[in-house]
Specification:
The chain is of the alpha/beta class. Helices cover about 30% and strands about 20% of the residues. The chain is globular, with a radius of gyration of 23 Å. It comes from Chitinophaga ginsengisoli.
Length: about 425
Amino acid sequence: MKRIILTYITALSCTAAFAQETIYPAPLQGKTVYLINATIHVGNGQVIENGALTFSNGKITAIGNNLPAPGADGTIMDLKGNHVYPGVIAPLSNLGLTEVEAVRSTNDFSEVGEINPSVRSLVAYNTDSKVINTLRSNGILLAQVTPEGGMIPGSSSVVQLDAWNWEDAAYKKDGAIHFYMPSLLPPPSVPGRFPVTKDVAAEFAEKTAKVRTFLREAKAYLQEDKHNEVNLKFEAVRKLFTKEQKLFIHCNFVKEMLVAVDFAKEFGIDVVIAGGADSWMIADVLKQNNIAVVLIQPHSLPVSQDDDVDQPYKTAAQLQQAGVLYCLSNEGFWQQRNLPFEAGTASTYGLTKEQALSAVTLNTARILGIDKSTGSLETGKDANIVVSTGDLLDMRSSVVTHAFIQGRELNLDNKHKQLYERYKHKYGLK
């Protein structure tokens, strides 16, 4: 048995040694870059035809038409016929916290226990994940790394997807605390095998009351000048009450979301609904209470049998019309690569193409509190830029040819492309 195990480990090691990509973070931007003759989608609804954009030292320095050319040390990229976009931002992702869902040793996104606000997902973020490069190839340049498990599993952080380690990757640290509200929807019952026996409403009331009590005690603790003992869990939510952090409440149904609204009112904190499948039903309430929504998995079936079959596709347009701040998310990790295309679907169900782009760029940046640095192509913001030969939101025409994070040009190779080239070579395909 020992010999078999040793042989197996050796085989795995040899396979890994020959399968590693030679992809590493780009160096800091050197020369000024001048993009010309492109259709520039700013991200705030504005489109500049035959436009130009200049960035230097990682920052956008000018954007518009007929900009002065850079000096001799600059680089000019003629993008005639191409499109330029702000980098897409993926919220609510466990990217870098898991690699193979079925392999437990690669999963590091949850802790034991129900209330762990002091857990920081950022320090578990694995910059060597093979999945990261597949997202960059579709224009996704930043992600909100989010913990799971229990009711309050910890804090999420925004990372940029080109780094040696989590310290380099950190874009906004610990910007949100997450509360996974128990669902009021009973689990499915299988006759004769798995009957539903628990009281869903009672469990919902018990668990939400537990979180409410925790926040009340934390608020009282933080109002004291001195403490006999430091409570790390209470200290971890200090910034919630100063609005330096937001509380993301994961829920989908109207009654659940109304409880989330009550949390915002009682504690005077910034609340974001994560999920929000039925948010279109109470859009006016969310607008009145200044509560944003992250719509999860818009490519899905309706949550209720009474909903229109295309309800997940058109919810974004209904929130847009009501004036609710919202963005799109695909949750998970590898699925995030389809996020631009889901925005494209939303653009055929009521949104304009530029509104759909904002739903995965500027709106997301506003919700995550990073809109002063990214989310749109504006002077003074980070040069997080994507260049595509076609429409970034259309899977048929989107081909990302260049991408920049803070002015650094990325290597857009990835494991998928390498396997494609490998087997194309094997079978003599051109």
